[in-house]
């Protein structure tokens, strides 16, 4: 058995503005440790010390980030199997199609593990063991996702409703649920058979190709053309822009998972997890909770993230998030950190792209 980690790192991370911007989005920042979250994701499989199971990573990202990717891989001494570079973002269904085509063509019978580059996982060994167990189900023709144990009535995540048992902690999927309101989230927590959707997928490449043919044949066809006409430079694969830009933009959840009869879920995954989608979430999981330059006087429960050379002083304030980066400063409360993305929307609406 060979599992090929396919790491998606093309996102923008607008809710972590101003540190996360179009030049260097959040996955390339050192937010939770002395490594960037992209590097942490890559190293998770190196730490597994199981090279006969986990192959060298396949990276899929925007072509604009190639220098960041190569620099950060070199810093941790990892060489990617391949780096597939998109001319623009087209969501996760296109990424999944590219991953399945690449693995099926290069590694017949191989499994793909499609996962984001910007998630925090607190107990990597628990996650790795879950992947090994879920691989048994994937080899039986299921597209297996991972559900995080629900610890609170969270309205910011999608949910997975488990169905019939398959293999130990792996079940069929009864339903995927959109981000709920507070009352619905509380009912999911009370029910006990719901988990948070981590957006991680394990599959045999051939299985996913079959499901793409059945449910999203247009994405399958155009992704194949973009890959076959791609420009190669070492392990870098620049997807053909003429074809790729015409791919329909949708998620793997909408295109495949909500339609297929092959959906399975490993749940609950009992480890600390966060999609670190807001500054408040970073404060919950980070070992770098405050910039060393921060000075606090009679203040508490604040998070400070300042670029090198910027000193931030807090006096008599509580529960604030302060982010200072270059010529941009963000001040918000932890409760409103979900709304930071609206600042980015407003900057675009005003034509202030220089601050993005």
TrEMBL record:
Superkingdom: Bacteria
Domain Nucleotidyl transferase: 5-286
Residue stretches making up the MannoseP isomerase/GMP-like beta-helix domain: 293-347
Keywords (A to Z) from UniProt: Nucleotidyltransferase, Transferase
Pfam families in the cross-refs: ManC_GMP_beta-helix (PF22640), NTP_transferase (PF00483)
A Gene Ontology BP annotation from the UniProt entry: GDP-mannose biosynthetic process
UniProt xrefs under InterPro entries: GMPP_N, ManC/GMP-like_b-helix, Mannose-6P_isomerase_type2, NTP_transferase_dom, Nucleotide-diphossugar_trans
SUPFAM superfamilies: Guanosine diphospho-D-mannose pyrophosphorylase/mannose-6-phosphate isomerase linker domain, Nucleotide-diphospho-sugar transferases
Keyword Transferase attached: yes
Gene Ontology molecular function: any one: mannose-1-phosphate guanylyltransferase (GTP) activity
PANTHER family named in the record: MANNOSE-1-PHOSPHATE GUANYLYLTRANSFERASE
Full protein name: Mannose-1-phosphate guanylyltransferase
The species this protein was found in: Hyphomonas neptunium (strain ATCC 15444)
């Amino acid at each position: 058995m060979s599992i090929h980690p396919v790491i998606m790192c093309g996102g923008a991370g607008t809710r972590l503005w101003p540190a996360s911007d179009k030049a260097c989005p959040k996955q390339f920042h050192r937010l939770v440790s002395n490594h960037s979250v992209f590097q942490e994701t890559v190293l998770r499989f190196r730490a597994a010390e199981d090279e006969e199971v986990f192959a060298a990573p396949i990276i899929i990202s925007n072509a604009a980030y190639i220098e960041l990717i190569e620099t950060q891989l070199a810093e941790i001494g990892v060489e990617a199997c391949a780096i597939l570079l998109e001319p623009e973002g087209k969501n996760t269904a296109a990424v999944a199609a590219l991953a399945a085509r690449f693995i099926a063509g290069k590694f017949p019978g191989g499994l793909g593990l499609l996962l984001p580059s910007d998630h925090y996982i607190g107990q990597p060994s628990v996650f790795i063991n879950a992947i090994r167990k879920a691989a048994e189900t994937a080899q039986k023709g299921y597209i297996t996702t991972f559900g995080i144990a629900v610890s609170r009535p969270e309205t910011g995540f999608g949910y997975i409703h488990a169905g019939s048992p398959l293999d130990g902690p792996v079940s069929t999927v009864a339903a995927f649920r959109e981000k709920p309101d507070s009352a619905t989230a509380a009912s999911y927590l009370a029910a006990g058979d719901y988990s948070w959707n981590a957006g991680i997928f394990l599959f045999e490449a051939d299985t996913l190709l079959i499901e793409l043919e059945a449910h999203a044949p247009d994405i399958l066809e155009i992704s194949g053309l973009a890959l076959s006409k791609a420009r190669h430079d070492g392990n870098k694969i620049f997807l053909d822009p003429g074809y790729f830009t015409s791919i329909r933009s949708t998620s793997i959840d909408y295109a495949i998972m909500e339609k297929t009869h092959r959906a399975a879920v490993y749940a609950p995954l009992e480890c600390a997890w966060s999609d670190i989608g807001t500054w408040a979430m970073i404060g919950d999981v980070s070992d770098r909770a405050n910039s060393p330059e921060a000075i606090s006087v009679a203040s508490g429960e604040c998070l400070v993230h300042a670029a090198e050379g910027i000193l931030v002083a807090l006096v008599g304030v509580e529960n604030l998030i302060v982010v200072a980066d270059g010529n941009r400063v963000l001040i918000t409360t932890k409760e409103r950190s979900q709304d930071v993305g609206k600042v980015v929307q407003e900057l675009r609406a005003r034509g202030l792209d220089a601050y993005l």
